[in-house]
Amino acid sequence: MSPSQSETLTLWALRGVASIAGTVVLFIIAFLFLEALPALKEIGPFRFFNDASWHPTDGDFNLAPMLLGTLLATLGALALATPLGILSAVFIHYYASPTLGRVYRRLIGLLAGIPSVVYGFWALVVLVPIIGRIHPPGPSLCAGVLILALMILPTIALLADASLTRVPPQTLQGAAALGLSRWSIITGIALPAAKAGLATSIILATGRALGETMALLMVSGNVVQIPLTLFDPIRTLTANIALEMAYAMGNHRSALFVSGLVLMAIIAALVLFSERFSKGEMSV
Amino acid sequence: MKWILVALLSVVAFGGLFFSARPFKAMDTTGTPKVSHIPAQLLLTGSSTVAPLAAEIGKKFEKEHPGIRVDVQTGGSSRGIADTRRGLSDIGMVSRPLHEDEADLFAFTIAQDGISMILHKDNPIERLSRTDVGNIYTGRLTNWKALGGRDAPIIVVNKAEGRSTLELFTAFLKISNRDIQADVVIGDNAQGIKTVAGNVNAIGYVSVGAAKYEAAVGIRIKPIPISETVTTIKTSHQQNFLLARPLNLVTKIPPEGMVSAFIDFARSSRMIPIIEEQQFVPVTK
Q: Going along B99-138, which residue ranges are E strands?
């Protein structure tokens, strides 16, 4: 085979592979939409937010408490994991000895690799009973937030670490030469310079938190309600799909696909937002 | 060298696509009827409670009828009904009595199952009345102290919408699922047992078979009797449970040929040891 022939072959093979990846996404969206269509037509999009409750076998389809559950769990987890993740990246870079930094980075990497069902099982056996002793019942928004925070912490820490690595050393040395303290260099120079990377890390972590299913299904109690305190149980959209899909028929099944569509819409909005954000960052 | 890599890559990619497409087709429930006319295969779909039993009976049936393959797929009682109606499966598995609007189907009870209330092993309560259970689940009783237990809130564990266990439970208490004030909602029996085992103040309800088995292997739960049971089953080892439910095989038309042979086989006295082995109660004719 001549070099030009092999070049053409490579080109077409890569085109093929790329188009498979692309079409699969489109197929999934089209499939979700088609399956959701009967419910959207018969029930109408507004009833998903106006119905009295979520009792799909009796014909009530209010998704709003679960949408709120998903958002609250995600925001709570971000509020905990963002400072922890960024500060641990700062620790690795500017405070830890090289050996300690290396060990710590490995540990965080390991945390990222633990399967979500293992997190869920651990939380169910250890975390939930502890919360139950402080304030019953135990399975709650609080348990969900804590376990999600633990799961997205490594995503934020590792990506923040990578973006701090890209800050040019000359900048930091220049700042040090001006007599700035270590903490002022970090807050005044390193973190602002790594802003785009840090934002990306938070956005990716948000995506993971929104999509997490198994761990939340195990620890958050799955009661469809608007939580009044941190200790009230909640149900997320993902947990709802996992819990009811196997047994759902007709409009109930179709309504679950609607909740899948809602999740897709949130993720799509997040991706668009992050794209705009990183573009804006580059032009500065 | 490069083209080998490329060829390998495309084979893997397309091969992956091909193989992943096959199980997808098999899971498709909305497609056209697929097996009814192939004489060598008998397809059962429906209740996940009946499925393990049907699979065991199927194995024995296959041994005696070489050439017939019994295929059992789960998806809940409602799916069993829907698939049978649309002709997607030969026999549907339904773990509850048929509703009025399901009278077009033919049902054959092969065994009875029970649903049992379960508490944590360290809970001092030994017995509950039907009224107590109703009050607990509707939120009128929220503390164990009122029932003679310790001063602690009752953690109510309920099942997710669409499960026949939930349907039977609410029918037994004569309440609607809307009235239930749950603290935890769970999916399958195993998750319910883990939840109750992990919380001293929890109360839940699961299949008797699962509850007895887990309690026997040392999981920290106890099935408790309801003093006012309406069970129709009177066997020595299963008095404990809240209510009985029939495990049914259903067909769209009066069974004939292979389907009839399977149903008769499942209801024959030779199947009694298999039914008891799975913690169900055989139907006495």
A: 106-120
- Interface of A to B at Cβ within 8 Å reads 1, 6, 9-10, 13, 16-17, 20, 53-58, 124-125, 128-129, 132, 136-139, 217-218, 221-224, 233, 235, 242-244, 246-249, 252
Lowest mean pLDDT among A174-183, A247-256, A258-267: A247-256
Nearest to A137 among B3, B155, B160 (CB): B155
What is the predicted ipTM?
A: 0.80
All structural domains of chain A with their residue ranges: 3-42, 49-283
Q: Does B29 reside within a domain?
A: no
B185·A235 Cβ contact <8 A: yes
What's the domain count of chain B?
Answer: 2
Domain around B158:
114-224
> Average pLDDT for residues A66-85, to the nearest whole number?
96
Buried b / exposed e across B2-27, counting CB within 10 Å, b at 16+?
eeeebeeebeeeeeeeeeeeeeeeee
Substitution target in A58, A126, A222, A224 with the highest count of B β-carbons within 10 Å is: A222
- Whether residue B282 lies inside any domain: the answer is no
- What are the tens digits of pLDDT across the range B139-169? 999 999 999 899 999 999 999 887 878 888 8
Q: Does B182 touch chain A (CB under 8 A)?
A: yes
For B3-49, the pLDDT digits (tens) are 555 555 554 454 444 444 333 333 334 434 444 444 578 999 998 88
Residues B134 and B216 in one domain: yes
Q: Indicate yes or no: CB of B9 within 8 angstroms of CB of A17.
A: yes
In tens, the pLDDT along A200-250 reads 899 999 999 999 999 999 999 999 999 999 999 999 999 999 998 877 878
In order of A36, A154, B44, B68, B258, the CA distances from B40 in angstroms are: 36, 53, 13, 5, 9
CATH number at residue B60: 3.40.190.10
Return the CATH architecture of domain A49-283: Orthogonal Bundle (1.10)
Dist. CA B188–CA B172, nearest whole Å: 20
Cα angle: B124, vertex B125, B131; to 5 degrees: 165
